[in-house]
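In the design runs reported in the main text, the only information available to the sequence generator was the tokenized backbone. The following block is the verbatim input for one such run; it is reproduced so that readers can re-run the procedure and compare outputs position by position.
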């Protein structure tokens, strides 16, 4: 048994859903960097099944994670845009 096959970070899926719903105005090659930056800013929520989170988390907890996620996305996009401005040759 591989434990990694049984659990996952719910926030990763939430992030991908958010990016697919509201694609950032960044070159596609920077999306992986964006995801890394965001996931390092938002605490993980490990679950075995997504339905576990739905059952055990309150609406306030969901809202809190969504707010943190959106704030981290915004902050990370601004950071990446700043990096692009400092390194235009890359």
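Verbatim output:
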């Amino acid at each position: 048994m591989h434990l990694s096959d049984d659990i996952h970070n719910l926030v990763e899926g939430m992030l991908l859903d958010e990016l697919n719903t509201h694609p950032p105005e960044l070159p596609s090659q920077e999306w992986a960097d964006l995801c890394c930056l965001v996931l390092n800013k938002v605490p993980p929520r490990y679950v075995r099944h997504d339905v576990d989170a739905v059952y055990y988390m309150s609406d306030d907890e969901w809202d809190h994670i969504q707010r943190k996620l959106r704030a981290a996305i915004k902050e990370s996009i601004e950071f990446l845009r700043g990096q692009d401005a400092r390194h235009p040759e890359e």
